Amino acid sequence: MTHRPLPPHDEDKPHEECGVFGVWDAADAAALTALGLHALQHRGQEATGIVSLEGGGQEVRNARFHAHKGLGLVGDNFSDPKVMAGLPGRAAVGHNRYATTGETALRNVQPLYADFEFGGLAVAHNGNLTNAHALKRMLVRRGCLFQSTTDSEVFIHLIAISLYSTVVDRLIDALKQVQGAYSLVALHNHALIGARDPLGVRPLVLGRLPAREGEAQAAGSGWVLTSETCALDIVGAEFVRDVEPGEIVVVDDQGVRSIKPFGRSPSRFCIFEYIYFARPDSLVEGMPVYEARKRIGAELARESAVPADVVVPVPDSGVPAAMGYAQEAGLPYELGIIRNHYVGRTFIEPTDQIRHLGVKLKHSANRAVLAGRRVVLVDDSIVRGTTSRKIVEMVRQAGATEVHMRISSPPTTHSCFYGIDTPERSKLLAASHGVEEMARIIGVDSLAFISHDGLYRALGRPGRDAARPAFCDACFTGDYPIPLTDQQDNSERQLSLLHAAP
Ligand code: SF4
């Protein structure tokens, strides 16, 4: 295991919790997993880990698992040939972490691994369980000893105490007890297993690797389970399909098997994946994310056009929406804010003196585009509003005569409990301020958000059906589709009393 400094992140943006990647039956499985995790780096930058399986499948008697985990980025942890040589085998599972539960400590870095009577099991989880505290209390009473502070460890103990005999039956038994959002990839001696929660809140896709030159098709074409299609692209795998909500996919030497142990319920995929989290080159639930963002921008222009000279994105996440807005509004699209991609580790723990410069470390205004112009600034969300205020100030200082902000999501009025790190409700600007008040605080001439119906229209729906919304949109509506058991039973706020030394 390695311990590296953490990269900086934007405290005024929601953060995706995790990315998962698993591969079955491929040469260099750990290297493919490292590549996949690299493509999923946007889903978590705090820590990363890979567990590989040597001699599994039909050679089950010789099965051995190998693990390497570290804090920091994938490239920092998996570029050393010695590390990769220590992860042999034709199957592997990996994880990128952005912590929403449990502190950042190596014991929380996934995949979590445990030995059972049926063999080894490594589990990588994207999402957040909403009854983890309640389950942990029950498990501790039954004698389970928790080693980490992450909610994902609950899966391991539920599998351990299950009375079923096979790993798949035990997993199903565990999944029937948890509430919340999960996309899981688990590696066992005999199989790679993927599972998605019954509402399919977080994404999970199945892909197939091409046969390698000189290998027979059957021997060479391994399988991949991962969070996004961009991770399939980087390893040259072909997108097969989305894992369905509530589906368990078992990949072994016989091929792929699908199990649907839950009754059918309508999908509530996270709408924020389209707006912000997923990578723009990914295909999410059948829709290219880039296209979805452009359509949201176009809808925003139809809803809240304003006389202006130029449309400017807040990079990077506002870029496709700004392009859609500009095309629909018939306005020029220009890069009026330049993002510095090399805000390095120097500023991980900035001094107060540096910190007050804030956003300037990351963004700078392009005076040539902004001076003397009426500017439409397009961003994907306003969380606390602190970054937006600084960006607007910077744009005005560069000579913009008017600044109109357009946001490609509805106001973020509620926190997420399904795997996205958002501040508590009292810190969300839109939770306690109306749009005009927010405009005054941010310092813009006008502010508009896409409407709920407009967002749904951009995603190919007639509008938001309040009785049966097609997506999870709880952070914009407060309509939480999965019970928030731990929030309602607020007696214990943390999963462990032991906290890592700084
Ligand atoms: Fe996504 Fe918001 Fe639902 Fe969380 S609450 S899963 S961010 S839509």
From TrEMBL:
Gene3D superfamilies: 3.40.50.2020, Glutamine Phosphoribosylpyrophosphate, subunit 1, domain 1
Active site: 18 (nucleophile)
SUPFAM superfamilies assigned: N-terminal nucleophile aminohydrolases (Ntn hydrolases) (SSF56235), PRTase-like (SSF53271)
Keywords: 4Fe-4S, Glutamine amidotransferase, Glycosyltransferase, Iron, Iron-sulfur, Magnesium, Metal-binding, Purine biosynthesis, Transferase
Enzyme class: transferase
All copies of domain Glutamine amidotransferase type-2, residue ranges: 18-254
Coiled-coil zones: none
Cofactor(s) in the UniProt record: Mg(2+); [4Fe-4S] cluster
Pfam family, one: Pribosyltran
Protein family: In the C-terminal section; belongs to the purine/pyrimidine phosphoribosyltransferase family.
Protein task: Catalyzes the formation of phosphoribosylamine from phosphoribosylpyrophosphate (PRPP) and glutamine.
PANTHER family given in the database record: AMIDOPHOSPHORIBOSYLTRANSFERASE
Catalytic activity field: 5-phospho-beta-D-ribosylamine + L-glutamate + diphosphate = 5-phospho-alpha-D-ribose 1-diphosphate + L-glutamine + H2O
Cofactor note (record): Binds 1 Mg(2+) ion per subunit.
Protein's name according to its UniProt entry: Amidophosphoribosyltransferase
Positions annotated to bind [4Fe-4S] cluster: 270, 416, 472, 475
Annotated binding of Mg(2+), by residue: 317, 379-380
GO molecular function: amidophosphoribosyltransferase activity
Species in which this protein is naturally found: Caldovatus aquaticus
Pathway: Purine metabolism; IMP biosynthesis via de novo pathway; N(1)-(5-phospho-D-ribosyl)glycinamide from 5-phospho-alpha-D-ribose 1-diphosphate: step 1/2
Listed EC numbers: 2.4.2.14
